[in-house]
Write a structure and sequence with these properties.
heterodimer, A: mainly alpha, two-stranded antiparallel ribbon, 13 helices, B: mainly alpha, two-stranded antiparallel sheet, globular
Chain lengths: 469, 280
């Protein structure tokens, strides 16, 4: 295998693995902040118990995020040195912002948040909680700014082999950055809510006692209440993102709809539900279309013209394989988004009927199982969305300025890249398995509902651990 | 006369002071990383030689609340290097691919096994992996530093050497020194935290830190004006003036703030309390 393909697999794999954890740490961070604020406000210890339980899973995801974020940051240099040099003037700076401002905030306050219950006053603890959540969101903001700029590079000029920033505000607030940040932030919250509801549903199904059942019914209801706003909001944000792609990356839009020929004026472009392209490109060998559908969705007119892939030279547009991946990932993402919206409606219906109570669980086991099965939905949607975003813009790494093939480090040898790719794959597999295993154990052990609430103890005179090492 | 002098300094600084400033900032961040996480890595390596699981547990408890924040300095240093010297970032990391990967795998092994250790029943497996991860990270850092100091083959502003150029006798020497320095720092940190000690014992940890700082500072200054020896200077590698200024406004004011809250973190966790072990 050549070094370019290997590096793309390695980087894509690292990114696909890494994104799982920020999804949860952003969402859980905000969820935990809501819980702690509610606890301090209402003095109701039920919120404290919820908080202490979900913190365990949060810490697990946070560490996974750090552990996989470091390779991601370093791989820009190790595997994509030419990209780092060419685009580093803006991209490197923004990544530097992300690590300094956001990540440092998150990591430093996590210690106090997780270990400092008795060491700091409640107000300081809440502040640490807020900083952890804020840090995660700020990280997401800078990362989405950097990535959007690679999609729609603005505020720059090209000097020789380097892309130099001329206007920082224009580059940071490029047309894609705010919408993609919003789409990602809400994806994190939505994924986390379905993660919390799914875990709660499983715990409700297998609860050994009423207290525990009530505990998880409470966390389910808190998450469901937030999902009422979040699930429709995400469908809306997804539509706005689509409009942005249509405007700034028409090749990507054509690929994700597998649309080859621009529809002649006066006729509509059909929307393909399923399609398969010829491997030489140029046309589909098979498709199932809704007449005028694509024109209607993209231009809001029955006969609006939508540019097809054939308008672009083959070397400047996604290959047929990349088009297939983009096309089906897009459909998978939309399907997941709609599924989550419908599940939310079902949940609200059950709530209204009074069936979200411990007496009703026995009669509605199928309903609870549905939520357990739905745990991966948000993760799948996000992965699919990133596939659309990253594969759909090939062959460019910085849109219309730098090709992915031009970004690779010169003088890399196949052996070390191959070996590390295998090792990363192995590690990611073990890490995901470990995460599922330990999350399962945490849930099975259940919340601690009896030990005394940890409160601030002012510093006593120095006592040392009596140990000889 | 005075105005002339001021304008002379002004002209000089406008051209030159930003790359130098950012070089020293990156150096400071790496230096802090070595001093802070060096102790954590040293304790990790030491834990490989401890006889009981209880001792290992205590060692891990000592660094529990701080190792993640300490490791952040490496992430911050890498981010600053990427932002201020994108050319150097690409060259160093791609030329020293294997040491960088040893470092990365060491860090992820340490992080994941540390966390799984908390929740696992069979703790010794994760404890052992934690120690191995720490050792790998230290060795990776050693060869990274050694490979850089030994010089990197460049043509057309890009790496042009071989995959194993970093495996020089000097690099081996530096690696061994770094591992030993971490072991001493880690042991000193444990001593400071674990025993009610006399004034002399209390001096061991600061002394170990001072030695690390002086050694690292010397190497940094010898490198100048190169950032990638033998030929890439900080001026060739620097990002555009606009970027360096923008970073100054964006990151500059935050560095003292990060300092302040890291010191606060250390103060909060400076006294050991036997009853709050694993309070996650």
């Amino acid at each position: 295998m050549d070094i370019l393909t290997l590096s793309r697999i390695q980087f894509g794999g690292t990114a696909a693995f890494h994104i799982l954890w920020p999804l949860l740490s952003i969402g859980l961070g905000l969820y935990l902040f809501v819980l702690e604020a509610m606890w301090l406000k209402t003095k109701n210890d039920a919120y404290y118990r919820q908080l202490r339980f979900w913190v365990k899973i949060f810490v697990l995801t946070f560490v996974m995020g750090t552990a996989s974020g470091i390779p991601l940051e370093f791989e820009f240099g190790t595997n994509w040195a030419a990209f780092s040099n060419a685009a580093g003037d803006f991209f490197g700076n923004i990544l530097g912002f992300e690590s300094t401002v956001a990540f440092a905030l998150e990591a430093a306050f996590l210690g106090i948040f997780a270990f400092g219950w008795k060491r700091v006053r409640p107000g300081v603890h809440l502040f640490a909680n807020a900083m952890v959540a804020f840090g995660a969101t700020l990280s997401a903001f800078w990362i989405m700014v950097a990535n959007s700029w690679m999609q729609i590079p603005t505020g720059i000029t090209v000097e020789g082999t380097k892309i130099i920033v001329t206007d920082y505000m224009v580059a940071i607030f490029n047309p894609g950055s705010l919408i993609s940040f919003a789409h990602m932030e809400v994806a994190s919250i939505e994924t986390t809510l379905f993660f919390i509801m799914g875990i709660s549903a499983a715990a409700i199904l297998f609860a050994k006692d009423e207290v525990r059942k009530k505990f998880f019914l409470q966390s389910f209801r808190i998450a469901l209440a937030i999902a009422v706003i979040v699930t429709p909001l995400q469908l809306f944000l997804g539509d706005v993102s689509g409009q942005e792609v249509a405007k700034y990356q028409p090749e990507k839009l054509a690929a994700l709809e597998m649309h080859w020929d621009t529809n002649p004026a006066g006729t509509g472009a059909g929307y393909s539900l399923l399609a398969w392209p010829s491997m030489e490109g140029g046309h589909n060998t098979f498709d199932v279309q809704i007449p005028n559908g694509l024109s209607l969705i993209t231009t809001h007119s029955m006969t609006g013209q939508v540019k097809g892939l054939n308008e672009y030279r083959p070397e400047d547009r996604p290959t047929p394989i990349n088009s297939i991946l983009t096309f089906y990932s897009f459909r998978l993402m939309v399907l997941c988004g709609i599924t989550m919206f419908l599940l939310m409606l079902a949940g609200m219906l059950y709530w209204k009927k009074g069936w979200l109570s411990s007496e009703s669980v026995q009669n509605h086991r199928a309903f609870w199982w549905l939520w357990v099965i739905a745990i991966p939905t948000g993760f799948v949607a996000t992965e699919a969305g990133w596939m659309v975003r990253e594969i759909g813009r090939q062959p460019w790494v910085v849109y219309h300025l730098l090709r992915t093939s031009q970004g690779i480090s010169p003088n890399l040898s196949v052996a070390p890249v191959f070996t590390t790719t295998i090792l990363f794959g192995l590690f990611y597999f073990v890490a995901i398995a470990g995460f599922i295993y330990f999350t399962h154990r945490i849930v099975r052990k259940g919340p601690d509902l009896t030990s005394p609430v940890l409160r601030y103890v002012p510093r006593a005179k120095k006592e040392k651990l009596e140990t000889t090492l | 006369m005075i105005l002339d002098l001021i304008s002379l300094i002004h002209t000089y600084f406008q051209q030159d002071w930003l790359p130098a400033l950012w070089f020293f900032t990156v150096a400071l961040e790496i230096g802090l990383y070595l001093m802070l996480d060096g102790a954590d890595l040293g304790i990790g390596i030491l834990s490989l030689f401890t006889r009981t699981e209880n001792n290992r547990g205590i060692m891990m408890q000592v660094i529990g609340p701080i190792w993640d924040a300490n490791e952040t300095w490496l992430v911050v240093a890498a981010g600053t290097l990427f932002g201020a010297f994108p050319l150097a970032y690409g060259i160093i990391l791609s030329a020293l691919y294997i040491p960088v990967m040893i470092l990365i795998f060491g860090l992820i092994l340490r992080a994941v096994s540390f966390e799984f250790y908390h929740f696992a029943k069979r703790k010794h497996i994760w404890g052992r992996l934690f120690g191995i991860g720490s050792l790998m990270a230290a060795v990776g850092q050693g060869f990274l530093a050694g490979g850089l100091v030994s010089g990197i083959v460049i043509s057309n502003d890009m790496f042009a050497g071989g995959s194993f150029d970093w495996a020089t006798p000097i690099a081996c020497g530096i690696t061994v020194s770094i591992v030993i320095a971490y072991l001493i720092t880690g042991r000193a940190y444990l001593l400071r935290r674990m025993t009610t000690s006399g004034a002399l014992t209390r001096l061991i940890y600061p002394s170990a830190l001072a030695v690390l700082a002086v050694a690292f500072g010397t190497v940094t200054i010898i490198l100048l004006p190169n950032i990638v020896p033998p030929s890439i200077t900080i001026y060739t590698a620097a990002a555009s003036h606009k970027t360096l200024v923008f970073m100054l406004y964006g990151i500059g004011p935050l560095i003292p703030i990060i300092f302040a809250y890291n010191i606060y973190l250390y103060r909060v966790f400076s006294d050991e309390r036997a009853d709050d072990r694993y309070e996650v």
